[in-house]
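Project standup — Tuesday

K.O.: blocked on the structure for the chain from last sprint. Re-posting the sequence here as requested.
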Amino acid sequence: MEYKFFCDENITKKLEAVIKNFGYQVDSIRNQKLYGLSNGDLVKYLNTSNWTLLTFDKDFLHTEFSVRQGIIILNVKPNRDEFTVPLLEKFLNLLKNEKINCVGKKILLDQKFLLNLK
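H.V.: unblocked you, prediction finished:
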């Protein structure tokens, strides 16, 4: 499965670089200058372009938000690259090796999620 990741405005450039290093296409609110876009409008944009959303925003867990290619919500405290990068790398490695699939899913990505996969 080929994934394209779209990073919400709360995703750091370091996390975007991690995605690129795994060979995935990545774009972002920052790159597209879509600051202030409502969550509903972002979902419409992602569904027309077949992107998988990467965000820290737990509002996307609400049922009204559905992205065909999936929503990955990072759930890490504290929210710093030193904690989020290793988690994202583990997730992307599983995705690359087709151990998981995020199409049409909402994944709350934390250590518990990864432990439940084993």
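K.O.: great, moving the ticket to review. The first helix runs from residue 13 to 21. The CA atoms of residues 32 and 60 lie 20 Å apart.
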